[in-house]
Amino acid sequence: MTIREILNYSFLFVLYVVLQILIVRNLVLFNYAFCFVYIAAIILLPYELSMTAFLLIAFVTGIVVDTFYNTLGMHAAASVLMAYCRPAITRVLIDQPGQESRVELTLQEMGTGAFFRYVLVMALIHHAALFFIEASSLTLIVPTLIRTLASAVLTTVSVVLIQFFTRN
């Protein structure tokens, strides 16, 4: 990676986290759909990044969001789980085997359909972990599943719309 790419990813990373903390934190639809655009800072990182660095970045991102949400590590746990699952998800969702390490994980490179599926699956993993940790009981499984699905769709649509309006 060049210095320019590192600065570009760093700027977008800070932008997504600040956007989450200052603006999107208050975006809730019908008390079921929560928007977590900060996960885009994690899922849009380059694929050639080492797994250790990737998990560490996901953990730090989750801890920063936890600090402002006062959630005691729930976002960090969900972010690390999502980051851990990313290599398997990209192997399944990228059409050509062996190409996942050469493709940038952006809307422009992947196309709308593949990018939408990728973000939706990653958001489902993140949100399922986050909301089931928050519920801490299987007695609330139906409301938790509704909250997970609604939030994943809202987050996915938000990330795709943001990608439409950003250019690399």
Structure description:
With 168 residues, the protein is mainly alpha-helical. It has a single domain, classed as Arp2/3 complex 21 kDa subunit ARPC3, CATH 1.10.1760. Helices cover 70% and strands 2% of the residues. The protein contains seven helices and two strands. The chain has a two-stranded antiparallel sheet. Helix 3 crosses helix 4 and helix 4 (74-93) runs antiparallel to helix 6 (112-135). The longest helix has 25 residues, at 141-165. The two termini are 14 Å apart.
Brief description of this entry?
The protein is mainly alpha-helical and 168 residues long. It is 70% helix and 2% strand. It has a single domain, classed as Arp2/3 complex 21 kDa subunit ARPC3 (Orthogonal Bundle).
Order of SSEs: HEEHHHHHH
Total beta-strand segments: 2
Poorly predicted segments? none
CATH architecture: Orthogonal Bundle
Count of helical segments? 7
Give the overall average pLDDT: 86
Spatial strand sequence of the major β-sheet: 1-2
- Helix residue percentage: 55-70%
Tell the overall outline: globular
Distance between the termini: 14 Å
Largest sheet: 2 strands, antiparallel
Radius of gyration: 15 Å
Q: Approximately what portion of the residues adopt beta-strand conformation?
A: under 5%
Which CATH top level class fits? Mainly Alpha
| Number of spatially distinct domains | 1
